[in-house]
Write a structure and sequence with these properties.
two-stranded parallel ribbon; 9 helices; TIM Barrel; alpha/beta; 8 strands; six-stranded parallel sheet; single chain; 17% strand; globular; binds pyridoxal-5'-phosphate
Length: 226
């Protein structure tokens, strides 16, 4: 894992150099979904303490199995509104906010738990019907609505590109998210973070302006299922 992490960091450096960016602008979110707790502890020994997961029951289990660890759990998968309590209790940040009904449910639970939650807005840029997210064109209007939910602190946007070998299509997805983000920044919303890029496409994501890579298999090893 140490070698894989070093290779990822080298690739990040190189991709940044190629487009004249500073590597410190790009952070890494290790995605531990489906991997054993022992892998998380191995990553922790390398200095990683913030992990992405895509199912709330898994985040809950991690917290129960490793209660003494000061890990931060980032929810990157689709969240159902009836699971807002688990988000408020176990999640340090939600990168998949895509609808007002979820914001409303979260606001209520966060108020009860007396905490705030950092969120990214998930934009749908991929071609697959199965991918969820807000339409990029609706971002500014959605941010306006979110002003009614003060326990949610919007920090940026997130997207997943189409799963394909077609580089132009992947770039189109990333670029659509970046344009929507820029538009929202110009409208005065502080959405500075841009979470995009996974094991297969993170170099392209850096070239397209990503500030946060969500990397699972390239760090933890082969995953049998999603
Ligand atoms: C699984 C997942 C990732 C990481 O995928 P890898 O291909 O293993 O790097 C990133 N983002 C989301 C939303 C995911 O579900």
């Amino acid at each position: 894992m140490q070698q894989r992490l070093a290779a990822i960091r080298r690739n990040i450096e190189q991709a940044c150099q190629k487009v004249g960016r500073d590597a410190s602008e790009v952070t890494l979110l290790p995605v531990s979904k489906t991997f054993e707790d022992s892998k998380v502890l191995e990553a922790a020994a390398l200095g990683l303490t913030r992990f992405g997961e895509n199912r709330l029951p898994d985040i809950r289990k991690r917290c129960e199995h490793m209660p003494d660890q000061q890990f931060e759990w980032v929810m990157i998968g689709h969240a159902q509104s009836n699971k807002a309590r688990d988000v408020a209790r176990y999640v340090s940040e939600l990168q998949s906010l895509d609808r007002e009904s979820l914001a409303e449910a979260l606001e209520k639970r966060l108020e009860l738990e007396e905490r705030t939650l950092d969120v990214l807005i998930q934009l749908k840029t991929a071609a697959e019907e199965s991918k969820t997210g807000l339409e990029p064109a609706d971002l500014v209007a959605f941010l306006q609505k979110l002003k009614a939910y003060p326990h949610l602190h919007v920090k940026g946007v997130m997207t997943m590109a189409t799963q394909t070998d077609d580089e132009a299509e992947i770039r189109r997805c990333f670029s659509a998210a970046r344009s929507a983000q820029q538009h929202a920044l110009e409208a005065g919303y502080p959405v500075h973070r841009l979470s995009m890029g996974m094991s297969q496409d993170y170099v392209l994501a850096i070239e397209e302006g990503s500030t946060e890579l969500r990397i699972g298999s390239a760090l933890f090893g082969h995953r049998d299922y999603v």
